[in-house]
Amino acid sequence: MYICVCNAISERQVQDAIAQGATDLGDLQAQLGVATCCGRCADTAAEYLPGGRYAADVGAAAGGLLGPVEVTVLSRVAVRQVA
């Protein structure tokens, strides 16, 4: 679900930012750009912050994000020079 339509910021992005340490609306604005255009999403985004209606959802969503993550990326890219 989109929290901020103007900036295409999803619920998951807000949850991730909070899980990584955002503690107030100013943090979300600085990290994601939430509520920096029309501002209609400010109240909804604030509900994900500690003490908000959806704060418990942030912990559940971030459960798999905390701790070390190992990623292996395999890619083959053909590079060709153009004269």
Automatic annotation (TrEMBL):
This is Bacterioferritin-associated ferredoxin. The keyword Iron-sulfur applies. PANTHER family: BACTERIOFERRITIN-ASSOCIATED FERREDOXIN (PTHR37424:SF1). Gene3D superfamilies: BFD-like [2Fe-2S]-binding domain (1.10.10.1100). Residues 2-49 form the BFD-like [2Fe-2S]-binding domain. Belongs to the Bfd family. It holds the Pfam family Fer2_BFD. InterPro entries: BFD-associated_ferredoxin, BFD-like_2Fe2S-bd_dom, BFD-like_2Fe2S-bd_dom_sf. It comes from Castellaniella denitrificans. Keywords: 2Fe-2S, Electron transport, Iron, Iron-sulfur, Metal-binding, Transport.
